[in-house]
Amino acid sequence: MGFLDFPFSAAVPGSADPRRFPGHEEVLRYLQAFARRFDLLRLIRFETEVLRVRREDRGGWAVTSRKLGDKGSGEEEVYDAVVVCNGHYTEPRIAVIPGVDAWSGKQMHSHNYRVPEPFGDQVVIVIGASASAVDISRDIASTAKEVHIADRSAPARTCVKQHGYNNLWLHSMIDHAQEDGSVVFQDGSSIKADVIMHCTGYLYDFPFLGDDSTITVDDNRVDPLYKHVFPPEVAPQLSFIGLPWKVIPFPLFQLQSKWVAGVLSGRIVLPSKEQMMEDVKAFYSKLEARGWPKRYTHNFANYQFEYDDWLAEQCGHPAIEEWRKQMYHINGINKAVRPESYRDEWDDDHLVAEANEYFKKYL
C-alpha cells in the first residue's frame, strides 16, 4: 500500500511492526517518515480548519481558515487553485431502518468502534458485508453473546451460522425494528438485540464548498468530475484527490497528485470542457449498463489498475508493477479462502521476494 517511490516495508529504518498487515501506529510512522523525507512538514498548517472556499470574480479562490479552538471568523487568503484532499472516512453513512427511532437499543457506526470488550454478553447486529463488517463482526464475536450480520446483498431467506463460530450468523437485510427491542429481518425472523453496528461506509462531505464549486453530492456521487478529479466547469483550478474507494490508496493518490501537479504547471493539457463532460456522461452510461447504483460511482473494485495505468501514462510515469497487481489479486483470493487467518498465512512469497528486490533501489 506504500507510495510508489517510498517503500512501506519492515526493512525500512524506523519500522517497528514487521507484520505484513501492520497496525495503524505503523501506518502513521510511515506517513511521518514520508513527510520528513520530502520536507513536507513546513508546508502543512496543523490544527487548522478550512471554513470556506469561494470562487473570486477576478479569478482565483478565496480560502478562509482558522486555528482549531479560535472563535473568530478566520483568515482569508486567495490562491490560484485549490486541491481538495479532505478524505472520505469522517461522515458516517447510516442505514435507513423503519421503526428504529422507537427501538430501545443502541446504535453506533464502525467509525467509533475500538475494542470488543464493551459488547460482552450482548446481542449485536452488524450491518454490512465489506471489510469493516467482516473484521468487526469477528472481533465482537470473541466477547458478545450473539453476533448477527445483516447483508443487503444476501437472499431474503438467508440465516446461516458462520463456519468456526457458535455465535455468529449471516442474515438478509433488516426489514424493520420494533419498540420492544426486536429487529426483524427480510425473511420475517427476528431477534432481540442490544446494539446495531452500522458498518455501512461513509459519505462524501465538503461543507466548505459552495455552489460556485459546480459540484454536487447525490447518493454519494460527486458530480461532475472528469476522471474523478476535475470538475469540468472550473478545471483545473479546482480538483479532488482521493475519492476512489476499494483501492490500494497511496499509489492511486500519488498518481492523481502527479496528474494534478502536471496540469497546474502547464506540462499536461486537459481536454476541453465539452470533451470532459462527454467523458463523464459516457462513464455514467457504463455504470448504468452494469446495473451499478449511483452510490458506487467511485467504487474502483474492478478497474483500479486500469485507472492507475491511465494516470501513469498521462504523467509519463511507468505503469504499476505487475507484482503489485498480482499481490493485490492473490490477497483478495486468500482473504476469501482464509477469512480468519489471511493476515498470517499466504502463498505468494515469490511476490514478496520480488517486491523486496524492487525496494532496494529506494532503501
TrEMBL record:
Keywords: FAD, Flavoprotein, Monooxygenase, NADP, Oxidoreductase. The keyword Flavoprotein applies. Signal peptide: none annotated. It is an enzyme of class 1 (oxidoreductase). InterPro entries: FAD/NAD-bd_sf (IPR036188), Flavin_mOase (IPR000960), Flavin_mOase-like (IPR020946), FMO-like (IPR050346). It comes from the Eukaryota. Its EC number is 1.-.-.-. It holds the Pfam family FMO-like. Belongs to the FMO family. This is Flavin-containing monooxygenase. It comes from Digitaria exilis.
